Amino acid sequence: MMLGNGAGMAVTMMDLTDPAQARAVDAFVLGHADGSPFHRPAWLRAIEQATGNRALLLAAVGPSGRISGILPLHHVRSRLFGAALVSTAFAVDGGILANDQRAVAVLATAAQTLATERGGLSLELRGGPAPGDPWQRLEGAHVGFVRPIAADDEAELLAVPRKHRAELRKALANPALTVEIGRDACHLRDHFHIYASSVRNLGTPVFPRHLFRAVLDHFGADADILIIRESDRPVSAVLTLYHQGRVMPYWGGGIADARRLRSNELLYYRLMAHGRARGMTLFDFGRSKVGSGQAAWKKSFGFDPRPLVYHGWSADGAQRDIDPNSARYQRRIALWKKLPLPVANLIGPLISRGLG
Q: Is the pTM of this model over 0.85?
């Protein structure tokens, strides 16, 4: 499907069910300095499989037939939050990935055409180069946290600021706390229980259980789960992605007792060691809302925030209301926190799949 051409290149819709096309896209992402897991066919297909949000991938192709840029998208639909084309759904990064500004321009134009053809949808690009006018520049809401992984465990411990290091030492001195890493059904079960409890307490609908299985299946060895146990009880857990030297803890949390046990501190410290053993060099702590407790916690762990810039477009200038700081969203959060966990786990996936 051709969606436009210009600047000596054409924009086409890639078929991710075609192994050859999927490999070509993956090779482009893995060979690009700004590529992320969220640009990869593995992410697009896992999200589509688990949530029903259709994956669409635009590619700018030059006369030689080689890919010069891509824009991965999900068509996210929700009765509560509206519909949009998002790059990419459930991700903290994404956006246009291109070799030059010519490819950026033709992909941005093709995305606008696609959004119009699909009923006048808005577009949300989470990162990437600025598409230019008439796109909105969205900044000031989120920050990211990345720093190098230290040379060994002792150096890693010393990289943590003194106050937080004291908390971590208490966890390290607790013989009941052990670490386990895997990808099996038991790891998924324990991770989901911990994650579901954690996000319900924050007022967020839990994602579908099979989303985590789909991500592990599609990413293979590039994803796993790390669990901290107190004796046999799982108390903290995180599902992590590994990409081009980066450790990217993505979906994690702890039970109510995690604060007392300092098991979340231990969770990420052990993950740093695990990443080092895998040959990783950077620890990417993901994004947090500016001014949030989560952002403050990451900073106290020795990470400096860096602003994240997103981009948006719609024909009428309107965007979806998915800002947790909005008054309407805050009312939803307050209500969600009051739900019993079984009820939250039952209806949460039906809501969260439309958040994207």
A: yes
CA distance 53 to 74: 6
Q: How far from chain centre, in Å, is Cα 156?
A: 24
Find all residues with CB under 8 Å of 89, minimum gap 6, and list them: 47, 51, 53, 74, 76, 356
- Residues facing 343 on adjacent strands: none
Task: Judge contact between 283 and 241, C-beta under 8 A.
Answer: no
Q: Which residue bears the tokens 């039952």?
A: 346
Categorise residue 118: left if φ over 0, alpha if ψ from -120 to 50, beta otherwise: alpha
- Measured between alpha carbons, how far is 205 from 355 in angstroms, rounded to an integer? 9
134 burial type by CB count under 10 A (0-12 exposed, 13-18 middle, 19+ buried):
exposed
Cα–Cα dist 56/85, whole Å:
9
Q: Which residues contact 27 (CB under 8 A, 6 or more apart)?
A: none
Alpha carbon 178 to its chain centroid, in Å, reads 27
For residue 246, how many C-alpha atoms fall within 13 Å in the half-sphere facing its CB?
18
Spell out the domains of the chain, with CATH numbers in brackets: 2-139+309-320 (3.40.630.30), 150-280 (3.40.630.30)
Q: Give 181-218 pLDDT, tens digit per residue.
A: 999 999 999 999 998 888 766 666 677 888 999 999 99
Determine how β-strand 84-87 pairs with β-strand 136-148.
unpaired
- CB of 129 closer than 8 Å to CB of 103: no
* C-alpha–C-alpha distance, residues 196 and 204, integer Å: 9
Q: Over the stretch 127-186, which tens digit does the pLDDT of each residue have? A: 999 998 899 999 999 999 999 999 999 999 999 999 999 999 999 999 999 999 999 999
Residue 282 predicted with pLDDT over 90: yes
Residue 174 CB-density burial (10 A; 0-12 exposed, 13-18 middle, 19+ buried): middle
Task: Dig out the tokens for 239 from the structure.
Answer: 């599902």
